[in-house]
Amino acid sequence: MKYIEQLLRKKDNKNSWHYLPFSLFFFGIMFLNALLIKYSEVSTNDAIKMSIEKYGKNINFLINILPMAVLLVFLLGWVRIFHQQSILSLTTARSQVDWKRVLHGFCIWSVITLVFIGIAIISSPKDYELTFNASAFFPFLFIALLLIPLQTSFEEFLMRGYLMQGIGLATKSRAVALCTTSIIFGLMHLANPEVEQLGYGIMIFYIGMGFFFGIMTLMDDGIELALGFHAANNIIGALLLTSNWTAFQTNSIFLDVSEQPTISYLETFIQIGIVLPLVLFYLGKKYKWNNWTGRLFGRIK
């Protein structure tokens, strides 16, 4: 139980107000963007389609994901310079980053994602179209492998790193840090076209994934596993299957062409209520996690 507590040794990080400038900057941008979308005459999905028509899918993807890569550099620099905190302590409580954990998390979620997508395609083949185009796919593959890990790493360093540590230090509560960051993570996706298409029920998945990443971070004293899982979720999804109403409309291998896409609450329950707890149980056995109550709900001393 050292991931948050390790910062108590650093005088600068005892002042919770130090976390406000970057947080206000980022969420201020998010809020302004949400207002623009709400009062715009063009929906998010229509705006994406217009951008794709103008630039093509690969350049549109690059335009949308590149800012996250820049924000990652900005965040790490802010932590290092302003907080005088090492990037290592933002990442883990271990003496060095455990890259095997990152790879392990990536492999586990890649397999699970492939299984779910495979089942969907086999069970409803008419809803999916093979759209593989080598000349478009391989340039996208290069962009995706280069930038998606930076995008997902920014979200993990911000949510499970920066904010979880900051809220934990401010409230002295692991539960408050876990719940707050998980809910904020879900709300960050409100402007996604998936919400517009499928309804607010999709927020169950986003918030559920936020709790999943948060729980493994607190139990494992680091974000290495979350980095791997999150990267796998976005990379495999973007490369293998997309649609004309998702945030990532890419040159993927398959395209969802279902006429009236809706959220499957059964599938969501299986993913969030069964698969994720089983994965956490497996990780707990593998990495010998103990004292679940204390690590997730205990006070920060």
What's the SSE blueprint?
Layout: H1 20-38, H2 44-55, H3 57-81, H4 87-91, H5 99-123, E1 128-130, H6 134-171, H7 174-187, H8 193-198, H9 203-220, H10 224-240, E2 241-243, E3 254-256, H11 265-286, H12 292-297
Parallel strand pairs: 2-3
Antiparallel strand pairs: 1-3
Helix pairs in contact: 2-3, 3-6, 5-10, 6-7, 6-10, 7-9, 9-10, 9-11
Model description:
With 301 residues, the protein is an all-alpha fold. The chain has one domain (5-297). Helix content is 69%, strand content 3%. The chain has a three-stranded mixed beta sheet. The chain is globular, with a radius of gyration of 19 Å. The model has no long low-confidence stretch (mean pLDDT 91). GO terms for molecular function: endopeptidase activity; metallopeptidase activity. The chain crosses the membrane at residues 20-39, 59-81, 102-122, 134-154, 175-192, 198-218, 225-243, 263-283.
CA radius of gyration is: 19 Å
Tell me the fraction of residues in β-strands, as a range.
under 5%
Q: Unreliable segments (pLDDT under 50, ≥5 consecutive)? A: none
* Percent of residues in helices: 55-70%
Helix/strand order, N-terminal first: HHHHHEHHHHHEEHH
Class based on secondary structure composition and strand pairing: mainly alpha
Termini distance? 10 Å
The whole-number mean of residue pLDDT values reads: 91
Principal-axis shape:
globular
Structure summary, number of beta strands:
3
User: What's the oligomerization state?
Assistant: single chain
**What is the topology, as strand order, of the major beta sheet?**
1-3-2
List the domain count as a whole number: 1
Largest sheet: 3 strands, mixed
Give the count of helical stretches: 12
GO molecular function, one term: metallopeptidase activity
Keywords: Hydrolase, Membrane, Metalloprotease, Protease, Transmembrane, Transmembrane helix
InterPro entries: Rce1/LyrA-like_dom
Transmembrane segments: 20-39, 59-81, 102-122, 134-154, 175-192, 198-218, 225-243, 263-283
